[in-house]
């Protein structure tokens, strides 16, 4: 089976590629390597996949992995309406994992156009390619941000999510609606995954785990929003990737062509407790700068993963202590 993974140089996409390659699938990785965060980290992820940095800088040219015979990479924008169909026609994919997106809640307040281009136009182009080139199954990234300021916890897939409080969340809800429409009209299967605060080695530098560790180790202040009165359903990357893989392996659930799943840990952690565990493992006290609530942010995330567990036997088992330990081991080896 030949599989397309978009966002292959990103955090989750990179880890998913490794999983699929080790399972023996033929994988094409796609990424535009944008400058939202440090591109060196993206190129270094690709290097772990056997893709040389120099070759990966060119647009619309395949680069064969030096490490995996069953992997090649192409740099391309999903919003490129001319080039994307050509890729599908040439490669004849059977399944697509879409992890490519413009991410970040706060950045969407500053640069909304990037979210429309990537998350709406790009996703629309991808759906058209799936329709026209006989894709069996599209698995795509949604987000826990679609729940907005819902008061009922844990968040469940059948909750009303009609009031997003960031443009990022609005684009992800739009993706779910668009995927439903295409499944209904054209009959191919789509599965959306609402991710909850993913962390781990090779993680994104704009996420809390990365920001806190870097600041504490450098003796700098960490911004603690809403004076630390927040909680997040932190989910370790290996648990996330296992869930994503299982979602792609399950071609149908009760003959449903469209499905949405929460994919989280199911055990929210208070932000101050999260910081305390980092302090404990680093043996360095954090300098907390108490800040007000950020626009577009939410007080709590908490995933009800009952459906994913029942349908796909999803069972996240990485504790916060273990996950932080693994992240710190990677962080120190990569940066020091």
UniProtKB/TrEMBL annotation:
<feature type="domain" description="NAD(P)-binding">
    <location>
        <begin position="4"/>
        <end position="326"/>
    </location>
</feature>
<dbReference type="InterPro" id="IPR036291">
    <property type="entry name" value="NAD(P)-bd_dom_sf"/>
</dbReference>
<protein>
    <submittedName>
        <fullName>UDP-glucuronate 4-epimerase</fullName>
    </submittedName>
</protein>
<keyword id="KW-0520">NAD</keyword>
<dbReference type="InterPro" id="IPR016040">
    <property type="entry name" value="NAD(P)-bd_dom"/>
</dbReference>
<dbReference type="Pfam" id="PF16363">
    <property type="entry name" value="GDP_Man_Dehyd"/>
</dbReference>
């Amino acid at each position: 089976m030949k599989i397309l993974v978009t966002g292959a140089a990103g955090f989750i996409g990179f880890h998913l590629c490794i999983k699929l390659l080790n399972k023996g699938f033929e994988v094409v990785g796609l990424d535009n390597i944008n400058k939202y965060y440090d591109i060196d980290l993206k190129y270094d992820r690709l290097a772990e996949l056997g893709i040389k940095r120099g070759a990966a800088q060119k647009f619309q040219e395949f680069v064969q992995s030096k490490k995996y015979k069953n992997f090649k990479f192409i740099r391309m924008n999903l919003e490129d309406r001319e080039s994307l169909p050509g890729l599908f026609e040439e490669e004849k994919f059977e399944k697509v994992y879409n992890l490519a997106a413009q991410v970040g809640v706060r950045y969407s307040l500053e640069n909304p156009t990037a979210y429309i281009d990537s998350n709406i136009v790009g996703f629309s182009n991808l759906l058209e390619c799936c329709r026209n080139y006989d894709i069996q199954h599209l698995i795509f990234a949604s987000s826990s941000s679609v729940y907005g300021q819902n008061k009922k916890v844990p968040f469940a897939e059948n909750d009303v999510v009609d009031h997003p409080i960031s443009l990022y969340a609005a684009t992800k809800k739009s993706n779910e609606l668009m995927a439903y429409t295409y499944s209904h009209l054209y009959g191919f299967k789509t599965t959306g995954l609402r991710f909850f605060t993913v962390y781990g080695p090779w993680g994104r530098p704009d996420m809390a785990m990365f920001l806190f560790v870097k600041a504490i180790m450098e003796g700098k202040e960490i911004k603690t929003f809403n004076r630390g009165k927040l909680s997040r359903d932190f989910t370790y990357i290996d648990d996330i990737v296992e869930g994503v893989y299982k979602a792609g392996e399950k071609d149908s659930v009760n003959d449903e062509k469209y499905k949405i799943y929460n994919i989280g840990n199911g055990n929210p952690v208070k932000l101050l407790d999260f910081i305390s565990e980092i302090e404990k493992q680093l043996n360095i006290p954090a300098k907390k700068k108490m800040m007000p609530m950020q626009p577009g942010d939410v007080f709590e995330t908490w995933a009800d993963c009952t459906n994913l567990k029942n349908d796909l036997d999803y069972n996240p088992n990485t504790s916060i202590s273990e996950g932080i330990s693994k992240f710190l081991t990677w962080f120190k080896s990569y940066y020091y």
